[in-house]
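Hey, can you fold this?
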Amino acid sequence: MRRQEDIAVGNVVGSNIFNILGIIGASSIAAPIHIENINWIDFSYMTALFIGLWVIIQKGSCITRREGSLLFSSYIVYLCYLLYF
């Protein structure tokens, strides 16, 4: 299984999608989930981060150290925002 990054990434993405859709879907059948207010700042930040990651992935087949550092630092900025606001 060495040097098969595609399988590893597919495994991680697939399990995350299943956890989000399958588990939340099954538990909402048992007890409906009500979303009362959405924190639009968090939603907007994560959407922008996802779009940035998508652009990086579409540009090339690998994420460079610079791009990884950019993504990691933006995550740290988000964590600092959560901590102080």
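Oh, and this one too while you're at it.
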Amino acid sequence: MNRNKYLPFWLITLAVMIGLPLVTLIQDGMFMDAMLYTSVAHNQAHGFGTFWFPQFSKLNLDLPGFNSFHEQPPLAFGIESLFFRVLGNSMYVERFYVLVTMCLTAWLIYRLWQEVYKNEVTLRRLGWLPLLLWITIPTVFWGCSNNVNENTMGIFTLASVLVSFRLLQRDARNLFAWMLVGLLIFLATFTKGFPGFFPIVVPVVYWFATRRISAGRAFGYSTLLLAVPLAIYGILFLVPESRDSLSIYLFKRALLRITSDPTTSNRFASLVNLFMDLLPQLGLLLIIVLVARAKKIKAAYTGGQGGLILFFLLTGLSATAPLMLTMVQKAFYLLPGFPFFAIGTGMLLAPYISRFTEKMQTGSKGFRIFRGISVLLLCSAITVVGLQAGKVGREKDVLHDVYAIGKLLPEHSVIGINQRDFYIDWELQCYLMRYFFISVDFKPGKPLTYFILDKSLKTDTDLSRYKKMELGLEKYDLYKLEP
């Protein structure tokens, strides 16, 4: 089949991949967790904090028992810090990092699709389809515009599934390759913790869905995939520095948060979020199937594709369903599972899409118009994204004040703040630290030179020795201690 038939589809997919996430990513301002993690990586690049003991600010999160930042394992911070070391301090460095993770994820999805259809040229050329289904998931294009750790973890989990799938399809008993998969799983857990373990079940899921390997071999592979990361962690726990760091994360943060710091009251919140995110894809699938039936077009799933579709859908569930075991659930925790749902849904749609493309004539007027529209969409997406450069996407008033304060105070300054504001106003703290290395402190040993207060709030702090500065701030007032 003429490759030119697929060019408009690729251009449209590229336009969507540029337009949906980058229109937000290129603007100043980012989700609080994303700015928190960015600040930690940025600090590490500048010698404030180490790989095993990262630092966010002077007080970090003010948690008892440790004075470093251990909300996540250290790998993602270490990787991103290398970007800052090489590329500098621009706000576009973290945005470039997010873009790199998006591109790597897209490439791995494409490679997995090619592996599925390595013997079917026509369907293999629909590699744009899973990418389009993936990037149009609302939480996905939101995640691709925010520096959340799931973006990094998803690369390792997706790569591990890709290698596992290749080995299982070939029935390869390559011990070294399976150990490589185990290493990728370790890297995923070293980025995000327990959620990174889900690829250990891939061999069992493959057996259940396809029955192409024996149950004994499937469980044997899964046991090996669990043993490799556990062995690496065992070695790390023999080294004092890594043992202390990982112990804080595991026992004082991860397990403690699971048991005592819920983010939802509904155990099935992740299931609801998953359904809502996949609703557009499910709707598209339903429409295409109904249209195909109306036109008496039948889908032909050959070569055991039905089993592989089930495999990818179950792999997606293995990445998302375990989140419901705890009450710590957020929509973006689902991100690593979405590539597999996109591939599975794409495989369901592929025979119908293939029948449609078979009838397309590249020399026809309709195709030339279609191709022109795709070029126009791509150019429009690039233009719209470019026009957003230099704009502020969120927390405009906070960023306005942060930049004004940053011009006045030297780097590594510490500003006084209300205790309540310290535990609530993370946007202020993250922007101050990321752009100017400025910390806030609600319990200084002596009065600090500066004190910041939200204009809409009152404080019990004695400000009689302070004078309000006239800086034209929008959300806050900055006070200076009088001599």
